[in-house]
Design brief:
alpha+beta; S1_domain; Translation initiation factor 2 subunit alpha; 7 helices; OB fold (Dihydrolipoamide Acetyltransferase, E2P); 3 domains; Alpha-Beta Plaits; DNA polymerase, domain 1; five-stranded mixed β-barrel
Length: 276
């Protein structure tokens, strides 16, 4: 989705489309930035040294014309309208998260275009009076719309900078309710918990009871299942991976604290008991 600024800033991670592959470099366009006044999109370049952490014999084995890639912005020359970008400095998790967010926001932009046409308002006016204020408050449109869907119309009305008529506000809220799905992340881990104490069974039960009673951030749900001594399974649902990992760490710390030094706690992710 187009940004208010014509160029990103160094350190940002952006989605680009490959337009030209040469022996020593790759040219791309940044689909969400307008660039210079005479350009449709901002332009950038990936030097061959920024394509991979390994020696590159054939660029075409890594990247191809028309491909969309997630890149890190190294340098920005706004006067010349050109950017230096890197593929190798973006990790796998960043690539996945940025691309998923980009696809989602483009879907939202399509909905907003339809909304603007239906309500006879220019997209630029809709963004200036309603969308950018939401982005300013929540950081991005995805987060804004999910918060409004989850919390209700009052969440939308809290953004005092929105300047559209009441009937249009109601229509925007209905658009969000009808089309936005609250994202969820599901994580499954298993614990190998052992205790050498005489009351070890009760101690393990106490550990998991305490873990289940831990204060949860909004959107987090947990369920513990006994698989068979010494294995216990945790199903954890959260709004994002960061929240999931944070609560998982709290659960593990709680169990370890209760079990103490006269026992052991191992977290297993890749070798779950139900995998063949």
């Amino acid at each position: 989705m187009l940004n208010r600024n014509p160029f990103p800033t160094p350190g940002e991670v952006v989605v680009c489309r490959v337009t030209n592959v040469q022996r020593g470099y790759v040219q791309v366009e940044l689909e969400d930035y307008t660039g210079l006044a005479h350009e449709q999109r901002a332009q950038g370049m990936i030097h061959i040294s920024e394509l991979s952490n390994r020696w590159v014999k054939n660029i075409n084995s890594i990247i191809a014309n028309g491909q969309r890639v997630v890149l890190s912005v190294l340098r920005v020359n706004e006067d010349r309208g050109y950017l230096d970008l890197s593929l190798r400095r973006v990790n796998k998790v960043q690539k996945q998260n940025i691309m998923n967010s980009w696809r989602y926001e483009n879907k939202l932009e399509g909905l907003l275009k339809f909304f603007a046409e239906q309500n006879k308002i220019e997209m630029s006016e809709l963004f200036d009076k309603a969308i950018w204020p939401l982005v300013d408050k929540y950081g991005d449109l995805h987060t804004a719309f999910e918060e409004i869907k989850e919390e209700g119309k009052d969440e939308l009305l809290k953004v005092e900078e929105i300047d559209i008529p009441e009937d249009l506000m109601e229509s925007l809220y209905q658009l969000i309710v009808d089309n936005v799905t609250i994202s969820k992340v599901n994580m499954t881990v298993e614990y190998d918990v052992r205790s050498q104490d005489g009351n070890g069974i009760e101690l393990i039960k106490e550990a998991f009871r305490g873990a289940g009673k831990l204060r949860k951030a909004k959107g987090i749900e947990t369920e513990f299942t006994y698989i068979g001594a010494p294995i216990y399974r945790l199903e954890l649902e959260a709004k994002d991976y960061q929240s999931a990992e944070k609560h998982l760490a709290k659960i593990t710390a709680k169990i370890e604290n209760v079990i103490g030094s006269n026992g052991s706690v191992e977290v297993m992710r890749d070798n779950l008991s139900n995998k063949q």
